Amino acid sequence: xxxxxxxxxxxxxxxxxxAMVLNWSIVAVSISNCRKGVxxxxxxxxxxxxxxxxIAYPLYPFGTKWWIVAIPxxxxxxxxxxxxxPWAIAHGAFKSKPDNLDDGGAE
Length: 107
Fold this sequence. Notes:
By secondary structure, the protein is mainly alpha-helical. Helices cover 66% and strands 0% of the residues. It is built from four helices and no strands. The protein has helices spanning 2-36, 48-59, 66-74, 76-90. Helix 1 (2-36) packs antiparallel against helix 2, helix 1 packs parallel to helix 3 and helix 2 (48-59) runs antiparallel to helix 3. The relative contact order is 0.15.
């Protein structure tokens, strides 16, 4: 049973690390696009590594588990979820725009 738990938790940790690598590649591509003058939005997988690592943490059958916690901490998608989302809400990034955008006052 310990071997099965180790295999499952190992696969989950690998998947969380894969999500982290994808998020860092999105950061690299976004920086590259910004330098080239390309205005293209790329979105991260926010919180995916956090959820997967939270599932893998109790499954891991061996002693030290601190390295599992390091994956979501190093993931920029987790930063966007925990820091960026509250900042965007506080600064009104999700407010709806008015429907009548300068219609000249005609009704």
